Amino acid sequence: MKRLLFLLLAGTLGLATARAHTLTVYAAFGYDQAVAQAFTRSTGIPVDLVHLSTGPLQARVQAEGARPRWDLVWFDGNVAMRELALQHRLACGWAPAVRYSALGRSLEPADLCYLPVGLTYAGTMLVNARRLGMVPRSWADLARPALRGKVGMNNPAISGPTFPFVAAMLQHDGVRAGEAWFERLRRNGLKVYPTNGVTLRALQYGQIDVAIVQSSAALGFAAREAGLRIVAAPPQAALPSDIAIGAGVRGGTLQQARRFVEFVLSPAGQRVMQRADPDADSNYQPLLQGVPALPAVSRLVVRDPLLLDPLAWGPRQAGVDQWFSSRVMH
Known about the structure:
Blueprint: H1 2-20, E1 23-27, H2 32-43, E2 47-51, H3 54-64, E3 72-76, H4 78-86, H5 102-107, E4 115-121, E5 124-128, H6 129-132, E6 151-154, H7 162-173, H8 175-187, E7 191-193, H9 196-204, E8 210-213, H10 215-224, E9 228-231, E10 238-245, H11 251-264, H12 267-276, E11 285-286, H13 310-313, H14 317-327
Parallel strand pairs: 1-2, 1-3, 6-7, 6-8
Antiparallel strand pairs: 3-10, 4-10, 4-11, 5-8, 5-9
């Protein structure tokens, strides 16, 4: 009888310990805190959220290396996610029962090391047409003399979503032609800022008239500032937001981490994402069947998005960032 009571108590304590484990989630979205709170209310599983912008978050994940402090990581960019998978840092081979759209299925990797959650575009023009007196229609237009000193973008070494834009231009035009285009922009007075927010403030204060930023940031800013035009010049680099579980997550923690992924990829989780940051990150294209985008997203029409090859560009990011710093920023 005493042995039975001990086993019951041990089982109860073990269950309580499993339930009490706090998931550590590294994320880089304006809605991530709202999602974490909604998940805890729904499941009772506490979440320790570490919120950083994409570039610093990716740098922190790399710095922690083989001793990660996170259970789940969630940010924009399957190129960086593929690099983590190549380093054997992600748990692979599992996915919840998700009703992805055709686009969502096209972004789901075969090894299931990470899962697509939503879609934005890495480089969209936001133009102050009233002050500029014209609307550029193509990327080539940005190197015209009329736009000298009036174009700004983010630094890909700091802004995580910007590297896919740079890589897309190199992939679409060919590396030499793509590099030559960026260098023409430099000679035409291109201004480079750290992140979306700084680039958009430069547009707001008249330091530039064309801002190249992530589509969700462009849509949110255009909704608040009158007279701005959104230009989705081809190519538009598809920028999926992806979520992944750490390779070292085991046992009850793994089951809880999977529940977090299931929540994010559920209609309920998507509703939280769309409500929490309507001025920026909520303006994404859902990848689940039956989940419509916010009305503001209809302002962005992309007919043939460019899909980067993450296997090709992940290992090249450091080199491309170094080239950009040495040849475009100076």
